[in-house]
Amino acid sequence: PVIYSGGKIQLSVHVGLASSAKALIILEQCGKNKGYQEMDVCGFHPEGGCCMLDGPEKIESTINMKTLCKNISLEGIDIIFSRDAGRYICDYTYYTSLYYGNGRAAFIHVPPLSTSVTADFLGKALQTIILEMLKQCGDQRK
User: Fold this and answer.
1) CA geometry: angle at 134 spanning 129 and 115, to 5°?
2) What residues form the membrane-spanning segments (predicted)?
3) Is the predicted pLDDT of residue 61 greater than 90, yes or no?
4) Catalytic: 90?
5) Please, what's the b/e burial string for 80-114 (b: 16 or more CB within 10 A of its CB; e: otherwise)?
6) Which of 9, 31, 37, 83 would give a disulfide with 95, using CB separation of 3.0 to 4.6 Å?
7) Three-class SS of residue 81?
8) Mean pLDDT for the stretch of residues 45-55
């Protein structure tokens, strides 16, 4: 989702699948510009292996994901902080969003749905996380 306030984008939130994570939500702190070697399913490969030829090496989110992990507790699932979204479609999307949004973006990796991680459960978990992110956005404006 993209969250607006006063006609301006406050935060873009991206969600991607971490297929190896079973009961784990991963909050990504930064997007990386270089190191994209694999082609996507359509055969796309970023020119020069990077998102933006003139972009910085990495861009940090304005959201402090480490603090967010400490402030949120969800029964039945762990939440961790990460600084590497994987140099594939997720990282590419995140970096680009951070680049154009001046750091006002977030990326959340979620586990596949299962009997313990249902769509309803995951939806409520994402709602809790995004509300905490918006609190940080509000604190940054003060």
Assistant:
1) 15
2) none
3) yes
4) yes
5) eebeebbbeebbbbbbbbbbebeebbbbbbbbeee
6) 31
7) strand
8) 93
Which H/E stretch holds residue 104? none
Does this model's pTM top 0.70? yes
Selecting among 45, 47, 90, 132, the annotated active-site residue is 90
Q: How big is the CA angle at 133 (ends 139 and 51), to the nearest 5 degrees?
A: 110
- Of 14, 30, 51, 109, the catalytic one is 109
Is pLDDT above 60 for 142?
Answer: no
Give pLDDT, residue 49.
94
Domain 2-140 fold: Aminopeptidase (3.40.630)
Q: Which residues contact 97 (CB under 8 A, 6 or more apart)?
A: 12, 14, 31, 105, 107
* Annotated catalytic residue 109: yes
